Amino acid sequence: MKALITGATSGIGLSMARILAGKGWELILTGRNTDILQKLKKELKTSTEVITADLSDKNEVFRVYEFCREKSVDMLVNNAGYGVFGKFDETDLDDELNMINVNITALHILTKLFLRDFKRRDSGIILNVASSAGFLTGPLLSSYYASKNYVVRLSLAIAEELRRENSNVSITLLCPGPVNTNFNRRAGVTFSVKPISPDYAAEYALKKAFARKLIAIPTLTVQAGVFASRFIPHKLLSAVTYNIQKRKETI
Predict the structure, then answer these.
(1) pLDDT exceeds cutoff 70 at 37
(2) Cα distances (angstroms) measured from residue 123 to each of 42, 69, 74, 116, 127
(3) 3-state secondary structure of 189
(4) Is-contact 114 3, C-beta < 8 A?
(5) How far apart are CA 124 and CA 15, in angstroms?
(6) Is residue 128 a contact partner of residue 158, using CB atoms and an 8 Å limit?
(7) Do 112 and 128 contact (CB within 8 A), yes or no?
(8) CA distances from 44 to 7, 49, 90 (A)
(9) How far apart are CA 104 and CA 216, in angstroms?
(10) Residues 6 or more apart whose Cβ sits within 8 Å of residue 144
(11) pLDDT digits (tens, 9 = 90+) for 111-138
């Protein structure tokens, strides 16, 4: 069995690489840092290939796919992503566009291309890493929340198409709350609540993916929050989210 993992140099992607390698999976790992990828390749006790790529460039995304297309990939893990913190009119536009390219465009391209391959052979797993933010509106992280809403809705739509076709291809959507990764450091803020570990998030996601479950939300607290959000008026929910995000500036 072989998996492609994007954003494999840190956080959930790194944890997934280690867990899958421990289960005997062969791996193709991609990220922007060649040195970290090569170091990880030496660490893992399974066949591992690496391809350095900047997924904010769609040409690089297609290059990753071409690298993989004849290698019989069984699982696609779309993990790469980041956030940009601040008021929408004040955040850097180029940074936001790069984020959208990574969080949305790269995931969209890889999901479509690998889904076509998986459907042709009627097997394969797609694991899209979103966030509990994908069910919410997120003032001060507006573009990030919006990008994860895209991932959630795209994945849910694909899942229904696969269900109606009785396909053996499955898609799983990981939607954690805060995870102790580089996300907040990259966004320039501080955690406002205690995060879970990337190892826990990765283990939970893979367990759900192997069981062909559609949605994977680690921890009962986050599950309850996502469920409750369905019944809260949008204005109130946005106000609550704003206050949560605002605290990250002051902690």
Answers:
(1) yes
(2) 30, 15, 7, 11, 14
(3) coil
(4) no
(5) 21
(6) no
(7) no
(8) 16, 11, 42
(9) 19
(10) 82, 83, 84, 85, 99, 103, 133, 138, 187
(11) 999 999 999 999 999 999 999 999 999 9
**Encoded tokens for 104:** 């949305």
Cβ proximity of 173 and 78 under 8 Å: no
Catalytic residues: 144
Do the beta carbons of residue 248 and residue 189 sit within 8 Å?
Answer: yes
Query: Which position has the token pair 């995304």?
Result: 61
Confidence label for 232 from pLDDT (cuts 50, 70 and 90): confident
Q: What is the pLDDT of residues 176-217, one digit of tens each?
A: 999 987 665 565 556 556 889 999 999 999 999 999 999 999
Give me 132's structure tokens: 């509990």
What is the Cα 23 distance to its own chain's centre?
Answer: 21
Instruction: Give dist(CA 10, CA 151) in Å, integer.
Output: 20
List, in sequence order, every residue forming a beta bridge with 223; answer none if it has no partner: none
In one-letter notation, the amino acid at residue 84 is V
Does the predicted TM-score (pTM) go above 0.85?
A: yes
